Amino acid sequence: xxxxxxxxxxxxxxxxxxxxxxxxxxxxxxxxxxxxxxxxxxxxxxxxxxxxxxxxxxxxxxxxxxxxxxxxxxxxxxxxxxxxxxxxxxxxxxxxxxxxxxxx
Length: 104
Hints:
Layout: H1 2-90, H2 96-103
């Protein structure tokens, strides 16, 4: 009977240790799942950030091209104004005879 009591005590100690180890295992599994979920969220954020950066790089190229076009138009602005004012003067309501008279 003492032998049986000793074996039962050892079994109880081992079961208590198993319960402690099961709690540790469950805690480790929970922590692993939390970290995996956090890693997945970080990967999603990284993917969104890469899309944003690529979109901004495309916008930079587009804005650079627009600035070049605007600088080109700025250089041509005076000539375009001169040409348009000459055209307006040419099609003005004054007849050719009147304009020739103004020249004399």
